[in-house]
Amino acid sequence: MQSELFQNFIDSISTLTSEQRDILNNSLLSTQIEVTEVVETTDSEPVYSESIPNNDNATPDVEKSILAQFAENPRCPKCKSHSVGRWGIRNGRQRYHCKTCDSTFNAFSGTPLARLRHPEKWNKYLAGMTHSMVLRPAAAENAIDLKTAFRWRCIFW
Q: Which tens digit of pLDDT belongs to each residue from 75-90?
């Protein structure tokens, strides 16, 4: 079920190249679930709950994976030309300049992720959605607004 949800997420980002989808798929499939014992019941069986890993090493970084893949083979989102050059850094992301159509862009330009904020929270949010977390708890756990959680769900799923 988990890999099926990841595949739905990857398919929903239709504007990414097949190479970017492969990197995203590989990084997301390595997400792990930690099972912890939280409550002992009066029955003989304890109750277990799933928790989202807080360790950044266990959770792949979606943003860094996409940026690294794009940097290997940059391509203009407007004219699809590979004739591009680096054009400075804006908000921590490398910008590029197309020599064919004279436009500037970054790795997320022309994708559903283009204007999303808080990329440091994407991983934890995706892990929560993968584990069937509903919007209010997902928003509270990631310290984002309920409207933001709703919009992210529409984009990521």
A: 999 999 999 999 999 8
